[in-house]
Amino acid sequence: MADFVPRSVLVTGGAGFIGSNFINHFMPANPGCRVVNLDILTYAGNLKNLVGVERNSDYRFVKGDIGDADLVSRLLAEERIEAVIHFAAESHVDRSITGPEIFVRTNVLGTQVLLEESRKHWQSGAVECFRYLQVSTDEVYGSLGETGYFHEETPLAANSPYSASKAGSDLLVRAYHETFGLPALITRCSNNYGPYQFPEKLIPLIIRNIIEQRPLPVYGDGKNVRDWLHVKDHSEAIETVLKKAKPGEVFNIGGNNEWQNIAIVQLLCDMLDSRLGRAAGENRGLITFVTDRPGHDRRYAISAAKIKRELGWEPSYTFERGIAETIDWYLANRQWVDEVTSGSYREYYEQQYGGR
Ligand code: NAD
Ligand code: TYD
Predict the structure, then answer these.
(1) 238 inside domain
(2) In sequence order, which ranges of 276-333 are alpha helices (DSSP H)?
(3) Which of 133, 146, 239, 356 has its CA 20 to 30 A from that of 181?
(4) Is 220 within the bounds of a domain?
C-alpha cells in the first residue's frame, strides 16, 4: 500500500507537551504540508513551545475549543484538511480525581464533536483522502500485575476518571469507524518524557523540585511501574501510523523501558547531584513518601510488537540518552518552567496574536 501523505492536517492540542513536540518534528519533516493547530490554551497549552515554527507560512494557530462544532467544521472545509491528529485533552490523572467533569467534557464530548465534523467533512467528498488519528494512552487497559504486557487486544479496564474518559473516546472512534466507515486510527502510548512537559507530571516535577531543593513527593511505596518513552519517538511513531497504517487499526507505542517510580526519582537525584555541584547522595535526602493516589494503577507495560512488525517503527532513543537530554533541557530552560508554573507565559499569546 502506498503511503498516505496528507497536504493539510489539523492538529488539536498542538500547544501542549506532545502536540507541540509533534508539530516541531512534523513540519520540518514534511515541508509544504499545511499544519493547523487548534488549541484552547488551558494551563497546559503554551505557544512558546512553538517558536520554531510560528513564522512558517504553512503553520496556522487557531485558539479555540475542539467542542465548538461550527469552528471545527469551518476549519476542516476552509483548510481542506486531509488528516485530523487529535492530541487535545485533559491529561493529568491527579486533576481527574479532584475534578473529573472537565475530563468528560473535553476528552469524551470534545472527541465526539471532532469525529462528527470529520465524518461530515469526509463524506462531503471535499477531500480525496482522509484520516482521523486518535492519540490515546496505555492507561485505558487498566493495571497489570508483576508480569505480562498490554496488547492491542487487551480489554479496556480504565481505573481513573482520566483513563475512563480516554477509553470512552477510543470507543467512540471505534464506533465511527465501524458504523460510518470513518478512516480512523488509534494509537496507545506509554508514559512520555522530554522537553516542554508541564511540571505536574512525575519527571519534570521531580527535576524542578530537585533544582529548587523542595521535597520530592513519591506516592505510596514508590514501587508502581511505568514504561517510559521519549516524546520524539512518540512523534515519529504517530507519523508512521498516520502514513502507513490501514484505517480501523489500533497500535500500541512503547519503549520497553519499565521503571519503578522510586528508581526514576533516585536516578534523577543522582544525575542532578553532579550537574548542580552537590555532594553525591545529597538530593536523595529530598525524597518524601506521601499518601498514595486513590486507585493508583500498579504497573503499565506495553507490547509494541505490532507497530514494529507491521510498520517497522521502533524507538531510537536509549533511556540513558533521553533522560540526560531531558535533564539538561530543564536546566537550560528554567525560565520556561517558571513561566508555565506562574502562568505568565499567557502574555505571549496576547503579544503574538493580539488576544484573537
Ligand atoms: P497536555 O496536557 O500537555 O496538552 C493538552 C493540550 O490540549 C493543551 O495544549 C491544551 O490547551 C489542549 N486542550 C485541552 N482542552 C482543549 C479543548 N477543549 N480544545 C482545544 N484544545 C484543548 O497533554 P499531553 O501530555 O501533551 O498529551 C497529549 C495527548 O496524548 C492526550 O490526548 C493524552 O491523553 C495523550 N497521551 C499522553 C501521554 C503522556 O505521557 N503525557 C501518554 C500517552 C498518551
Ligand atoms: P504521572 O506523571 O502523573 O503519570 P501517570 O499517572 O499518567 O502515569 O505519574 C507517573 C507515576 O509517578 C505514577 O505512578 C504516579 C507517580 N507520581 C508520584 O509518585 N509523585 C508525583 O508527584 C507524581 C506527579 C506522580
Answers:
(1) yes
(2) 305-311, 319-332
(3) 239
(4) no
Going residue by residue through the chain, which has 356 residues, state the pLDDT in tens, using 9 for 90 and above: 789 999 999 999 999 999 999 999 999 999 999 999 999 999 999 999 999 999 999 999 999 999 999 999 999 999 999 999 999 999 999 999 999 999 999 999 999 999 999 999 999 999 999 999 999 999 999 999 999 999 999 999 999 999 999 999 999 999 999 999 999 999 999 999 999 999 999 999 999 999 999 999 999 999 999 999 999 999 999 999 999 999 999 999 999 999 999 999 999 999 999 999 999 999 999 999 999 999 999 999 999 999 999 999 999 999 999 999 999 999 999 999 999 988 777 777 777 776 54
**Cell numbers that stand for 290 in this block:** 506521601
Number of domains in the chain: 1
Q: Show the ligand 1 pocket: residues with CB < 6 angstroms.
A: 12-13, 15-19, 38-42, 44-45, 65-67, 87-89, 91, 106, 110, 135, 137, 166, 189, 191-192, 198
Q: Is residue 284 part of a domain?
A: no
How far is 27 from 36, CA to CA, in rounded Å? 11
Contact present, 255 and 319 (Cβ < 8 Å) = yes
Domain that holds residue 241: 8-193+228-256+301-318+344-353
Is 108 part of any domain?
yes
How far, in Å, is the centroid of ligand 1 from the Cα of 106?
A: 10
Q: What angle do CA 349, 350, 355 make, to 5 degrees?
A: 105
Which ligand 2 atom is at minimum distance from the Cα of 293? 15
Q: Nearest ligand to the C-alpha of residue 346? A: 1
- Just list the catalytic residues: 138-139, 162
Distances (CA, A) of 70 to 77, 83, 89, 117: 11, 18, 19, 9
Q: What are phi and psi of 81, to 5 degrees?
A: -70, 130
- What is the number of the ligand 2 atom nearest to the C-alpha of 265? 19
Q: What pTM was estimated for this model as a whole?
A: 0.98
